[in-house]
Amino acid sequence: MNVVRKVITGRPGVVIILTTAFLTSVYIADWNRAIPRSSGLSGIYEILKGFSQPDFSQEFLIVALQATWTTITFGTSAIFLALVIAIPVSFLASGTLFRSFVVRITSVSVVRMFLALVRSIHELIWAWILAILFGFSPMSGVLALAIPYGAILARVFADFLNDVPQPPLRALQSSGASNIQTLLYGRFPSAYKDMLSYGFYRFECCLRSAAVLSFIGLQGIGYQIEVSMQDLQFGQVWVLIYFLIALIVSVDWWGSKLRRSLAE
């Protein structure tokens, strides 16, 4: 039994599972529908033409800047709310608050199962569900991002808290520190750099998702891309893509600088 478990959870087992899944998907795929349309080449030509002739007019640049700022505000609001959810929930998911073995296992199992359920629902599905409750509004978009991202962050933060080296924790416990004190003064200070690094990565993902959620009231970059594509203004589409790339690169650079400053 142990041999089978090692094979399944080890590197060879992962390779076998992924290879089998890939070959199965290739076999069952309907390749007849993958035939390019006759108008595909002309469409590619128009897109490339827009790449070579981007619309940098002053009027559209103002539109692009406004859409970028909207995307930043909604992405920032969503990731802030996700962190408010994730940090306390990660304490429960890590099981570090309780001394009783039964209570700890119950807390970890129930909370992590709930987080897995929330994470399994894509933000687009959350957007549709929340749009039914609150209408097609910015609140629906922010919550649609904050709920699944909060669950993802809580799950990963819990692992960071559990992976903290044990000797400093034992020293705190031997001096009479409670579980909460050990968590706040031992685990959290040791794990917060990893939590910060992963939080910035999720912030980048959140900005991209905010750009996609345009159909429920988030009139950001994704909304403007949709409008420009409907009007066949591919020069405008490329300008908006440039803005989105610059936004993601800027957040990545900011996160790298902050992590290096904390490491010094």
Summarize the structure.
The chain is an all-alpha fold.
Distance between the termini: 47 Å
Percent helix range: over 70%
What is the chains' assembly state? single chain
How confident is the prediction overall: mean pLDDT? 80
Shape: globular
CATH topology: MetI-like fold
Structural class: mainly alpha
Please, what is the CATH homologous superfamily? MetI-like
Overall domain count: 1
What is the chain-wise order of helices and strands? HHHHHHHHHHH
CATH architecture: Orthogonal Bundle
Tally of contiguous helical segments? 11
Task: Supply the CATH class.
Answer: Mainly Alpha
Describe the structure.
It is globular and about 70 Å long. The chain is built from eleven helices and no strands. The longest helix is centred in the first third of the chain and has 37 residues, at 58-94. The chain starts with a helix and ends with a helix. The protein is an all-alpha fold.
